[in-house]
Design goal:
four-stranded antiparallel sheet; 2 helices; alpha+beta; about 40% helix; disordered N terminus
């Protein structure tokens, strides 16, 4: 078995108060008989969602594992075509995602995976701001500030929902790519076996004609 190939997506090392790292989307080719691992840094007390899809290759399946920075195995799946796992709250450090195709000796796999981060601390701060805003006196200047905060909050909510929509569209494109690859593979197999059957039919037809013709041939030799 080949040694694991390690690719560093992003290293994040900072205090828990810093924003989470940006979301990541990766599509790569996993060769036959290989195991490849990816490392992604994460802050503490956040939310990490990992989704993957096998969008190409025979069988459309791989082995998947997810480990925490402390080495704890969080998820382990065998011969799966897709999966989604959520870690909440996260542990500060580098998470390890591994994809294993060592059970296949011929076929390589095309794998897509996505990492989505969400900071739980930001949500708590927003809730605290909302509670503080509700307790303010209804003076004109303070009312204006409250309205501005509401507008900012609405914009942030809209932005997060738009980002989630983009992520869902990316995941749907991965589903579409997998289905398209599967259909193209099936089409190739159908065309191949159709050609084989057609060739056999032609050969059998010629053999039948030859055998029927040989039955009616006069093999007697004339005597002198």
């Amino acid at each position: 078995m080949a040694a694991p190939w390690l690719w560093l997506l992003a290293l994040w090392a900072g205090p828990a108060a810093a924003p989470p790292p940006p979301d990541a989307e990766v599509t790569f080719v996993l060769p036959a008989g290989r195991r490849e691992c990816f490392y992604q840094g994460a802050p503490g007390n956040a939310s990490l969602e990992a989704e993957y899809q096998v969008i190409g290759g025979a069988g459309l399946d791989v082995d998947f594992s997810l480990e925490s920075p402390s080495g704890l195995l969080l998820a382990s799946e065998r011969r799966r075509s897709d999966g989604a796992h959520t870690v909440e709250p996260t542990e500060a450090g580098d998470y390890k995602l591994c994809f294993d195709n060592s059970f296949s000796t011929i076929s390589e796999k095309l794998v897509f995976f996505e990492l989505i981060f969400d900071s739980a601390q930001e949500e708590e701060e927003e809730e605290e701001e909302e509670e503080e805003g509700d307790g303010w006196a209804a003076e004109p200047e303070e009312t204006l500030e409250v309205k501005m905060e509401d507008i900012k909050e609405s914009i942030e909510t809209m932005r997060s929902r738009l980002e989630r929509s983009i992520q869902m569209q990316t995941l749907l494109r991965a589903f579409e790519a997998r289905d398209r690859n599967l259909q193209e593979s099936n089409l190739g197999r159908v065309n191949f076996w159709s050609a084989v059957n057609l060739t056999l039919l032609v050969v059998v037809a010629f053999l039948q004609v030859y055998l029927l013709k040989s039955l009616f041939e006069d093999k007697r030799t004339a005597r002198t």
